[in-house]
Design goal:
The structure is a homodimer.
Chain A: H1 4-11, H2 15-23, H3 30-43, H4 49-56, E1 61-66, H5 75-90, E2 94-99, H6 104-114, E3 119-123, H7 130-138, E4 142-145, E5 156-159, H8 161-174, E6 180-184, H9 187-191, H10 195-210, E7 216-219, H11 224-237, E8 243-246, H12 249-261, E9 271-277, H13 279-282, E10 290-293, H14 296-312, E11 320-323, E12 326-328
Parallel strand pairs in A: 1-2, 1-3, 3-4, 4-5, 5-11, 6-7, 6-8, 8-9, 9-10
Antiparallel strand pairs in A: 10-12
Chain lengths: 339, 339
C-alpha cells in the first residue's frame, strides 16, 4: 500500500507539503496541489481522515451550536457562519453545524457526549446560558460569539455594544439631534437575557443620561408590522423626535415605511441609523440606510482562531475580544432641520 | 468500564432507546433523554463517535460544498442550509460545511480523498460542473441542489423554473398585463452556466412566445444600483411596460427605488413580482413585495433525506425532484390601469 512518502516522491515535493495540501494547515499553490492529487490517484493513496483522527486523538472538527431557522433573516449570521467555515478550513479544521432545536440542553449534552468535535463555537449567547455551564463542566474547549453576564474566565468574541451606541450617538448629536429614540429587539429577547438586547439598551440609557438627554427606548418584535406600530406610538408620545436608532432589521424597514406613510421624509424630517446591521441589508433600503455594520466576518475569524489555539494548547491568553460596529454613513442621516 | 447496557438498565429504558437518544435516528422525549444522560454521567459512559464510525465504516457526516461569501445576500440559501442541518440531525447525521473558495476542483478532490463524509450535497450547480464529474468518478454518494444540463442518472432536488415562470405570467396576465419585462441575474452568471439564470430565462422566452407576447428580458448585476440602471434603460426602450418580473433580490430593491424616483407608482403604474425570493426579503419592501418564494426548506429536506437513503443503500429510485416557487400575493401587483 502506498504511503505519504511515496506520494511526496512521485509529486516531487516534501512530505510536509503533502500534509499541508491535505489538511490546509499551510497554503499550497493550486499547481502543487494538483500534482499531489495526481500522484495520490496514480498510487491509489487514501489518507483516511478517520484513521488520522484516531492517531492524533483529534477529529479536526469544530461544532457550531446553531440556533435554527428563527435567525434566518440576519445577514450578519450568514456572514459569521461563512467566515467561521472559511477560517476553520484555512487552519485545517472543519465546521460542523449542530442545530439546537427545542431541546438546547439535550442537544448540547449530545454534542459533548459524542466527542465528535474537538471544540465548540456557541452563538446567540444569553447572559445566563445553560449551554455554557454544560460545556464548562465537560472541559470541552469552546469559544463564545457573544458573552454571558460573567465571562471572566471564558474565551469570547462579541460586538462592543457600548462603543457602538456611543459612536451612533456621537454621529447623530454631531448633526444637531437631541431628541433621539432607540428601537431595539423584542421584549421577549430582553426577558430571555439575550446579550445584544440587554447591552445595547443599557448603553443607550447610560450615554443619553450622561449627556443630559431624555431616554426614549422601545422594544419591538422582529417584523415590519411591529416596526410600523412602534413608530406610530413613538411620534404620538414624543412628537419632537428627530432621530431614530434601530437595532432590528425587519422593524427598521417597517419604521421607514410608516414614516413615509405619515409624510415624514427621511432624512429631512427624521434621521434613521440602523446599528448591528449589514451593508447588504442597508442596500435594500430606499434611501440607502446609514448603518453601523456588525463585524460578523471578524467575529467568525477571531472566534475560530482562538478556539483552535485552545484545542491545540497553543493559546497564550484568554480571548476577550470586543469589536464595535463600523459607521457607514449613507442617505438616511443628515443635520437636524426642525426647530 | 460501563457499557450501553449498563446505561439502559440504570435509566430504565431499552438499549435501542439509548442508541436513539445518542444518534437521533428516532425521536426520544426530552424527559427520557435527560434520564439517559444522567445515567451516562453517573456511570462515566463515553459513546465515542469516532469508535462508532470505525465500527460502522460510516462517519454519519454529510458535507455541503459551500460556495462562500458571495452568496451571503440570499435569504433562501440560509433557509436551505438550516433545513439541511436540521434534517440531517433528525436522521442521526451531521452537516459539515465545506467552503470551496477559489479552487473548487482542488477542494472537491480534498473532500473526496479525506473520506470524512459519507455523502456530499452540492449547491449552486452549473450546467457543466466539474465538481459533479469528480464526485461521480469517485463513487461518493451525492445529491445536487440544482442540476447539471444532463442530470438523468443523478439525484437532484431543484426549483421548477418552468412552472414558476408560467405561474408568474399567469398571475400577471390574469391581471391584464401584456407588456412584461424580466430582470434576471447577471450576464456573468449566465456565462458561467448557472442553472437558475439559464432555465428561468429560457422559460420566460418560451412562455411569452407561446402567448404571442413580446420577449423583453435583461440580465442585471446583483446590486441595487444595477437594478436602478436596468429600470431606467428598460422604460427608455419600452415605455409601454406595465409589469416587471425580477429574479435578483438586490436588483429588485434598486428597481423599486428607481420607479419611485421616476414617479411611477407601484402597483398603480407598474406591477412588480419577485420570483425565487423569500417572504423575509419581501417583508423588507414598501409596499410589501408580491413574491414567488423559493422552496429552500423543502429542497434541504428532500436533498438530505435522499442522500442518506443513497448512503445507506435504501433508496428505491433516483431522486428527480422539481419544486416550483409558491406565489404569495402582496401589495406590488394589481390589475393593469394604463391603456
Amino acid at each position: 500500500m502506498a504511503t505519504m512518502n511515496d506520494v511526496a516522491k512521485l509529486a516531487g515535493v516534501s512530505v510536509s507539503t503533502v500534509s499541508y495540501a491535505l489538511t490546509g494547515v499551510r497554503p499550497v499553490t493550486p499547481e502543487t496541489r494538483a500534482r499531489i492529487h495526481a500522484a495520490m490517484d496514480e498510487l491509489g493513496y487514501q489518507p483516511n481522515a478517520i484513521a488520522r483522527s484516531l492517531a492524533s486523538r483529534r477529529t479536526h472538527i469544530i461544532a457550531l451550536l446553531f440556533p435554527g431557522i428563527e435567525l434566518g433573516l440576519s445577514g450578519t449570521a450568514l456572514e459569521f457562519v461563512t467566515s467561521a467555515a472559511e477560517t476553520a478550513r484555512e487552519e485545517g479544521y472543519h465546521l460542523m453545524l449542530w442545530p439546537i432545536g427545542d431541546d438546547e440542553v439535550g442537544e448540547t449534552r449530545n454534542l459533548i457526549h459524542q466527542q465528535l468535535a474537538d471544540g465548540v463555537l456557541v452563538m446567540e449567547v444569553r447572559l445566563d446560558d445553560p449551554r455554557v455551564d454544560l460545556l464548562r463542566e465537560s472541559q470541552t474547549p469552546f469559544t463564545l460569539i457573544g458573552r454571558t453576564a460573567d465571562a471572566a474566565g471564558l474565551d469570547y468574541a462579541d460586538i462592543d455594544f457600548d462603543t457602538t451606541v456611543r459612536d451612533a450617538l456621537d454621529h447623530l448629536i454631531g448633526l444637531g439631534h437631541e431628541r433621539i429614540a432607540f428601537v431595539s429587539h423584542s421584549k421577549a429577547s430582553l426577558d430571555a437575557g439575550y446579550g445584544p438586547t440587554v447591552r445595547a439598551g443599557e448603553a443607550f440609557e447610560r450615554h443619553m443620561t450622561e449627556r443630559g438627554l431624555p431616554v426614549v427606548a422601545r422594544h419591538c418584535d422582529e417584523s415590519a408590522d411591529a416596526g410600523r406600530a412602534v413608530v406610530s406610538e413613538l411620534w404620538h408620545a414624543h412628537p419632537d423626535i428627530t432621530a431614530l436608532i434601530t437595532m432590528n432589521d425587519a422593524a427598521t424597514f417597517g419604521a421607514m415605511a410608516q414614516l413615509a406613510d405619515d409624510g415624514r421624509q427621511v432624512p429631512r424630517d427624521v434621521s434613521v441609523l440602523s446599528i448591528a446591521s449589514s451593508p447588504r441589508v442597508a442596500a435594500l433600503s430606499h434611501p440607502r440606510l446609514t448603518t453601523m455594520a456588525a463585524p460578523g466576518t471578524e467575529l467568525g475569524r477571531s472566534g475560530v482562531r482562538s478556539l483552535i489555539e485552545r484545542i491545540e494548547g497553543s493559546q497564550s491568553a484568554t480571548l476577550h475580544e470586543l469589536v464595535p460596529c463600523r459607521l457607514d454613513i449613507q442617505a438616511t442621516t443628515s443635520p437636524r432641520t426642525k426647530e
